[in-house]
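# nightly structure sweep
# worker-07 picked up a monomer target from the shared queue
# config: single-sequence mode, recycle default, output format = structure tokens
# input follows
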Amino acid sequence: MKYLHLDNSFTPYGKSIAFESFVFSGGEPHIKVLETNIGETVMITHRINSFNDLGLLLVATDALRRSGVKDIEVFIPYFPAARQDRVMIKGEALSVKIYADIINAQNYSKVFIFDPHSEVTPALLNNVNVIQNYEFVKKCLASINEEILLISPDGGALKKIYKVSEHLGGVDVIECSKKRDVKTGILSGFRVYEDDLQGKHCAIIDDICDGGGTFLGLAKALKEKNAGNLSLIVSHGIFSKGFDDLEKVFNSIFTTNSFQNINNNKITQIEL
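# output follows
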């Protein structure tokens, strides 16, 4: 199999098929595949952080098919709009379905995604292969030389974290919760369902860190229950509000390169 890495800073499988890409003055992405005799099977990899990124994936798919490629797989590590997986307020779009429908229309033989936000995304995608976060979490915890408690930030993450715990051989899990105003997005009411964490190292496990408000509020609640050192382990690091506040609270922060490359010596980034 050959690979077409559309983001030259995200090359998980080695050498890419040669290509040129650019954006027309009208805003449209375009591509030219430079190799001939590519073969019949190619995997495209791409980090989709915008509709233009999605557009580049689509024109690349068409270019490969026009070059004689019959079988195309795609690796989209961070699936866009995965958090918009239900309609909370009348008038909203079900955004994840829009992206899934566009991807499904390409008839990829396999669609690989990493640690989706919920079960909705895999249910919407055809020929999907989910890469779980188990090995990523295992690598993160291996660098922490302390007894660990796995922290579930909310009920939605609990099922996934118990599967992580099982993969790790049965690490203790602590359930937490929060309240969010669906109209404003404001968080409140963080709760930790354990009276005394006994000074143990608490590792919060989640799929996405965007602004970080959930984790800052939860960190405060954990410290109030006698938590020891704190670690944050997130599969997809958006970090839209930077790292300063998070670094004040967490002893270590781990993420992957699924969304972006991070140049910060206080953040441990594990490549997919």
